[in-house]
């Protein structure tokens, strides 16, 4: 369940979470450099209709690992992150355009992207602000565009965890948020692949913005 947060609370959540990532940016880059998310990238790309190359927003791009993967496949990838150190790293590492925006203060163009890749990022948005953020992501997709998300799953609790704020949705809760924002579910799965469910802490899902 989401909890009632004041504007001061929300500013503290953003500031504290971004401070954590800025402070630990080098360790985060090294610790995640070799993470295999090819399953997630493929899940997004196979649902985008039309002829590539596609214009992709890597939402919460971090140091730029997945921007490199998209551009290596010939797509036009733009990154977005709230942590200034990640933005600088991603620009240096990839040469891509990378926007520095707080997730709770987004300024996104209308109908710009064929796909949004939100890997291990939307769980940082507090539950009460998530509907607004999802509507903004919906609006920046082209009609028929696709959003991929992967979040650590839980029992709909939220709060501070190891220096970062997080919300931990189950499938039913996540479906409500996404469908209320206007998305249609295409598929979902749990990660890492091939393990018993109790050893799969990540819920991945793919969603379409209806063309009409």
Q: How far apart are the termini? A: 32 Å
Helix content: 25-40%
In which order are the strands of the major sheet placed? Answer: 3-2-1-4-5-9-8
Count of DSSP helices? 7
Q: What's the mean pLDDT score?
A: 95
Radius of gyration over all CA atoms, rounded: 16 Å
Shape: globular
Order of helices and strands: HHHEHEHEEHEEEHEE
The major pleated sheet works out as: 7 strands, mixed
SS elements, strand count: 9
Instruction: Please identify the structural class as seen in this structure.
Output: alpha/beta
Strand content: 25-35%
Low-confidence stretches: none
Summarize the entry for a quick read.
Keywords: Methyltransferase, Transferase. The chain has seven helices and nine strands.
Question: What is the fold's blueprint, element by element?
Answer:
Layout: H1 7-23, H2 25-32, H3 38-47, E1 55-59, H4 65-72, E2 76-81, H5 84-94, E3 98-100, E4 113-119, H6 130-140, E5 141-152, E6 157-161, E7 164-168, H7 171-180, E8 184-191, E9 202-208
Parallel strand pairs: 1-2, 1-4, 2-3, 4-5
Antiparallel strand pairs: 5-9, 6-7, 8-9
GO molecular function, one term: methyltransferase activity
InterPro entries: SAM-dependent_MTases_sf
Keywords: Methyltransferase, Transferase
């Amino acid at each position: 369940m989401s909890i009632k947060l004041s504007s001061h609370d929300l500013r503290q959540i953003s500031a504290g979470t971004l401070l954590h990532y800025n402070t630990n940016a080098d360790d985060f880059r090294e610790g995640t450099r070799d993470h295999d998310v090819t399953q997630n990238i493929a899940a997004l790309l196979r649902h985008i209709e039309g002829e590539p190359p596609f214009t992709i927003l890597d939402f919460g791009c971090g140091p730029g690992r997945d921007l490199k993967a998209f551009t290596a496949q010939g797509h036009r990838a733009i990154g977005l992150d709230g942590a200034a150190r990640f933005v600088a790293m991603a620009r240096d590492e990839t040469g891509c355009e990378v926007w520095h925006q707080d997730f709770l203060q987004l300024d996104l163009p209308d109908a710009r992207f064929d796909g949004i890749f939100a890997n291990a990022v939307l769980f940082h948005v507090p539950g009460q602000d998530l509907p607004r953020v999802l509507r903004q992501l919906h609006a920046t997709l082209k009609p028929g565009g696709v959003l991929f998300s992967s979040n650590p799953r839980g029992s709909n609790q939220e709060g501070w965890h190891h220096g970062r704020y997080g919300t931990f949705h189950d499938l039913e809760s996540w479906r409500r948020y996404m469908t209320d924002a206007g998305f249609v579910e295409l598929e979902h799965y749990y990660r890492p692949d091939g393990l018993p469910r109790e050893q799969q802490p990540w819920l991945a899902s793919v969603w379409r913005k209806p063309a009409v």
